[in-house]
Design goal:
Blueprint lengths: L5 H4 L4 H14 L5 E2 L11 H12 L12 H10 L12 E4 L2 H12 L5 E6 L3 H9 L3 E6 L10 H5 L6 E7 L11 H13 L3 E5 L24 E6 L12 E4 L2 H14 L5 H12 L3 H22 L14 E2 L4 H7 L3 H12 L1 E2 L1 E2 L11 E4 L4 H17 L5
Parallel strand pairs: 1-10, 3-4, 3-5, 5-6, 6-7
Antiparallel strand pairs: 2-8, 7-8, 9-12, 11-12
Helix pairs in contact: 3-10, 4-10, 5-6, 11-14
């Protein structure tokens, strides 16, 4: 017996692979510092928890309509005004997390043989879902010299008659890069010129340090060719609640709902009520979270840059640093994957190799600073001491 060959197409997300290895070390009695997973250390805001608990106590545990509760869809649509996006409930589909919407979006707009432009480095699930839908991923580069902002000229050079979809992720995982207003306008013009669909992953959209909050979907003509993918896990510290959504042209909502019915049925009702509270309640917890992230970012970047052989740019958004460790690799003869593996095994500090995000991540590591500040400080001490102990190649 064997599984269907379509499962062989799927990639994985190394954060969960490394997390599992770290948990095994913890089970053996070691204290592991977790910088591999994007898990906020702050709790879900109390008013959001209370809304979920209240919904449970009121018996709101039955099936919901497949597209999502009308009040949540409306709250999501209203919240998009902060990004300049005009939408109504009919443009919104709710899913149990952002990843299911990524899959739904890919299946909805990618035909077999279509080329799909994916960031490199980039979240590995983009390439995975593109292949699963029958598409052919085509990498476009994100360069540190441009602060990992999308290079529109480089993207345009990769467009062919078979190109159908462009995937963007802003702020970007794993680099924290963002796009300027001019970059967004040029990307929109490129999409219109070549009649491309745009899938824009904005799950870190509220986690920016420049005060901006925007979306390419807000630009003229883009709402009819854009699917926004977003969720509550990051900004509202709701990772385990599993609540996400997509925003799309109204005509696509009905077939997308059919896809949701076939795959997911619906999203947990009580969780959706918690989502309403997150969007319509006080936003102070989000602002405090961003302020805490800024402080941890600055501390981590400063500490990494003080390590010999490490160079780290300051991310503009999200909660990851993407340090260049090529100096350490050159001195020790290690590859970044081996460096990350040994850092976990020997220094009990879990990070991700840059190559987990594509070939463009070579020479880098990804470190999450979503965790506790004291853990980040200890991680810096361990990394500094361990890197300093590595023998140089002869």
């Amino acid at each position: 017996m064997r599984s269907a060959t379509r499962l062989d197409i799927l990639g994985t997300e190394d954060a969960y692979v490394v997390l599992d290895a770290a948990k095994q070390l913890e089970a053996a009695g070691h204290r592991v510092l977790h910088l591999e997973i994007g898990e906020p250390d702050m709790p879900t805001p109390p008013h959001v928890v209370e809304a979920g608990v209240r919904a449970l106590r009121e018996g709101r545990t039955r099936y919901a309509v497949a597209a999502g509760l009308p009040e949540l869809r409306d709250a999501i649509a209203q919240s998009l005004a902060a990004r300049g996006v005009r939408a109504s409930a009919e443009n919104v589909i709710v899913t149990p997390g952002a990843k299911p919407m990524l899959f739904c979006a890919a299946l909805a707009v990618i035909e077999p043989g279509d080329e799909v432009l994916c960031p490199n480095p980039g979240f590995p699930i983009y390439e995975s879902v593109a292949r699963f839908a029958g598409g052919q991923p085509v990498y476009y580069p994100l360069a540190e010299s441009r602060a990992f902002a999308p290079d529109v000229d480089a993207i345009a050079a990769r467009v062919t008659p078979r190109t159908r979809v462009l995937i963007v992720n802003l702020p970007h995982n794993p680099t924290g890069g963002v796009a300027s207003a001019d970059d967004l306008a040029r990307l929109a013009a490129l999409a219109e010129r070549h009649d491309l669909w745009l899938i824009t992953d904005e799950v870190y959209g509220q986690l920016r340090y420049d005060g901006r909050c925007d979306s390419i979907a807000a630009l003229p003509g883009m709402s009819e060719r854009t699917i926004i993918v977003d969720g509550f896990s990051k900004a509202y510290c709701m990772t385990g609640w599993r609540l996400g959504y997509g925003v799309m042209p109204a005509w696509l909502s009905e077939p997308m709902t059919t896809l949701v019915i076939n795959n997911l049925s619906c999203t947990a009702t009580f969780v959706q009520h918690a989502g309403v509270a997150a969007l319509t309640g006080p936003q102070d917890p989000v602002h405090r979270f961003v302020a805490s992230l800024r402080a941890k970012r600055d501390m981590l970047v400063r500490g990494l840059n003080a390590i010999d052989g490490v160079r780290c740019a300051t991310p503009a958004g999200a909660f990851y640093t993407f340090p260049d460790v090529s100096g350490v690799l050159a001195r020790t003869g290690l590859a970044c994957g081996a460096l990350a593996e040994r850092l976990l095994a020997e220094a009990h500090t879990a990070v991700l190799a840059g190559t987990a995000f594509g070939p463009g991540g070579a020479g880098h590591l990804r470190l999450s600073y979503a965790g506790a500040a004291r853990d980040l400080e200890q991680a810096l001490e361990r990394i500094r001491g361990w890197v300093g102990s590595l023998a140089a190649v002869a």
